[in-house]
Design goal:
alpha+beta, ten-stranded antiparallel sheet, about 150 residues, globular
Length: about 150
């Protein structure tokens, strides 16, 4: 038993001596990080959180806000909804919950499927790579649309 505890002590001492206690600058030029976000909400909780009116609050390209027009959406709890262009003209959309609780929008008229939005607090955020640029769009839930051209039925 004595020889085992002595061995454990020596091993611990060797480990401590190999760890630097001081600090020194380290280059982070070639360091990249990526994170997968998974929503821990149930589908029913996501449906409840998404149902309602949403508007873009920012559109960022490489961190710079380039938003010119507010885009408005309404999501119904049955997976249908509407997108309103800046003139207030409604367009039909569908939406679904994907893997990890992400939300995808299907634009019916153009048959286009959006990328995956992540529900974070009171915003839905999508980040997409467009060539060498990173584009990020934030939608926020609103009580009523700020675009006065929209006539809700």
């Amino acid at each position: 038993m004595k020889s085992f505890s002595c061995f454990a002590f020596l091993a611990a001492a060797m480990m401590c001596s190999s760890v630097s206690c001081g600090s020194r600058p380290v280059s982070t030029d070639s360091v990249t990080a990526e994170a997968d976000v998974h929503n821990t909400m149930t589908n029913d909780e996501i449906i409840s959180a998404v149902t309602g009116n949403w508007e873009t609050v920012s559109e960022l390209v490489d961190g710079k806000d380039i938003m010119t027009d507010i885009k408005s959406y309404t999501f119904h709890d049955n997976g249908n909804g509407g997108y309103f262009d800046p003139e207030g003209v409604p367009h039909q959309i569908g939406w679904s919950i994907g893997e990890g609780g992400t939300i995808q929008i299907f634009y019916v008229e153009t048959e286009q499927l959006s990328g995956k939005y992540t529900l974070t607090g009171d915003e839905m955020v999508i980040t997409e790579q467009n060539g060498d640029k990173v584009c990020e769009t934030h939608l926020k839930k609103v009580a009523e649309f700020s675009n006065k051209n929209i006539k809700e039925s």
